[in-house]
Write a structure and sequence with these properties.
Layout lengths: L11 E6 L5 H14 L4 E5 L6 H10 L7 H16 L1 E3 L8 H5 L4 E3 L5 E4 H7 L3 E5 L2 H9 L5 H5 L10 E6 L2 H6 L11 H12 L6 E5 L4 H16 L11
Parallel strand pairs: 1-6, 1-7, 2-6, 7-8
Antiparallel strand pairs: 3-5, 4-5
Bound molecules: P1-(5'-adenosyl)P5-(5'-thymidyl)pentaphosphate and sodium ion.
P1-(5'-adenosyl)P5-(5'-thymidyl)pentaphosphate binds next to helix 1, helix 6 and helix 10.
Length: about 240
């Protein structure tokens, strides 16, 4: 377990749930709410389909490519690691190196490249991150295929642990009734039932479970209440998933 500075920082807020549980709708509402309160906030999502790893994931999800279960699992994890860990300073011509020199985020490697912890830098700069899906999706969807859950968790160790996980709880049958279902690889009722069980296996006291069948505005309000304590004067150290 790794802990860093205990100064006030941004919060790491994760939204999880089955496909069509309302994560994307609620993430953007939460973003507006926190910005309205004057908190610097960014919305991230996984998979991040904009990277080259993300494009491989996207092709897989839309059935344009076929990958072994373990291979795609590791790609989803790599897609989080590439946002967790670093940008290599030397690759960025216009990079504001000076700005980062005092920030403790730099560590030099023996090959001479300097790396910056992107996610950690944002949090330490006081930016709250709302993340639409994270490690728990990775573990739930892959273990639902029958992969060993401990094997699935292993590549997630060392990613930053969220301050709170907001789980949008919806019966798979209800989610299937919502618009647009059926386009991507995992959007099948029988599979989503297994995913729901694999989410339950990961749920602990850091999770806030919210009934996702309520009207959108009611869920929105409950999410606001749930995060409020977590965004004001966050002083506990940033920890890693262990
Ligand atoms: N995956 C992902 C892995 O296998 N491993 C991993 O590591 C990761 C990160 C990614 C897929 O990849 C898998 C999981 C997924 O299968 P995605 O791009 O994240 O997929 O897509 P989804 O999360 O499935 O996004 P969806 O768009 O399906 O669902 P959301 O974001 O949960 O739902 P949202 O907000 O888009 O809403 C869906 C519909 O429901 C309505 C909305 O208007 C919309 O039509 N709705 C409601 N209707 C009634 N009442 C409410 N309260 C409603 N809230 C929303
Ligand atoms: Na979504």
């Amino acid at each position: 377990l790794r802990a860093s500075s205990s100064e006030s920082r941004g919060a790491l807020i994760v939204l999880e749930g089955l496909d069509r549980s309302g994560k994307t709708s609620q993430s953007s509402r939460l973003l507006s709410y926190l910005e309205g309160l004057g908190h610097s906030t960014e919305l991230w999502r996984f998979p991040d389909r904009s990277t080259s790893v993300g494009q491989m994931i996207s092709a897989y999800l839309s059935n344009k490519s076929h990958l072994d279960d373990r291979t795609i699992h590791l790609l989803f994890s790599a897609n989080r690691w590439e946002k967790r860990v670093t940008v290599e300073v030397s690759l960025y011509k216009n990079f504001d190196y000076q700005k980062f020199q005092d920030s403790n985020e730099l560590f030099s490697r023996s090959d001479g490249f300097t790396q910056i912890s992107l996610m950690e830098t944002q949090l330490k700069n006081g930016i709250t991150l709302i993340i639409d899906r994270y490690s728990y999706s990775g573990v739930a969807f892959s273990s639902a295929k029958g992969l060993d859950i401990e094997w699935c968790k292993a590549p997630e160790v060392g990613l930053l642990a969220p301050d709170i996980v907001l789980y949008l709880d919806i019966p798979p049958e209800k989610a299937a009734e919502r618009g647009g279902y059926g386009g991507e690889r995992y959007e099948q009722l029988e599979f989503q039932r297994k995913v729901a069980k694999c989410y339950q296996a990961q749920c602990d006291s850091s999770w806030k479970v919210i009934d996702a069948c309520q009207p959108i505005e009611d869920i929105e309000k409950q999410l606001q209440d749930a995060v409020l304590d977590h965004v004001t004067d966050v002083c506990q150290p940033i920890e890693d998933i262990d």
